[in-house]
Specification:
- It is a single chain.
- By secondary structure, the protein is an alpha+beta fold.
- It has one domain (11-132).
- 37% of the residues lie in helices and 32% in strands.
- The chain contains five helices and five strands.
- Strand 2 and strand 3 form a beta hairpin.
- The chain starts with a helix and ends with a helix.
- The model has no long low-confidence stretch (mean pLDDT 90).
């Protein structure tokens, strides 16, 4: 019966819990054939602004496998990810997943694994669902 009442409300935001292992799998999928040329590591940095507000920025470190050819490097770069650019690669991955308007609200570390709490505006959520249908 709660669905009837929920249909009368319009959410403001949608929140996802993104396990960092899931994020790694998504990035490897985005890399496609280039994933065989790198190992993927995920981390983050916590940034405090002048108003003592915390923001979290993901880092995607792509570590080249030994004996990479120049052609293999270009295959990696053509995916949109950058070698030696963990913040840019992290931003790129998150935008591919969540769109332009996302906020990492928190990072949680526990025995089940680390995860990001990611919030996106409801209107962006609806728009992304319509684009995939």
């Amino acid at each position: 019966m709660p669905a009837h009442y929920l249909n009368q409300l319009v959410p403001e935001d949608v929140v996802y819990l993104l396990d960092l292992r899931e994020l790694k799998d998504l990035i490897q999928e985005m890399l496609g054939e280039a994933s065989e040329f790198v190992t993927v590591e995920i981390d983050w940095d916590k940034i405090n602004d002048n108003y003592n507000t915390s923001a979290f920025r993901p880092m995607v470190m792509l570590k080249e496998t030994a004996n990479l050819t120049e052609e293999n490097r270009h295959t990696i770069i053509n995916t949109g990810f950058g070698l030696g650019q963990p913040f840019n690669s992290g931003d790129y991955a998150m935008k591919r997943i969540f769109g332009e308007n996302y906020t990492i609200m928190a990072v949680t570390e526990d025995e089940d694994g680390d995860f990001f709490t990611v919030e996106i505006p409801f209107k962006d959520f609806v728009k992304s669902r319509q684009e995939t249908n």
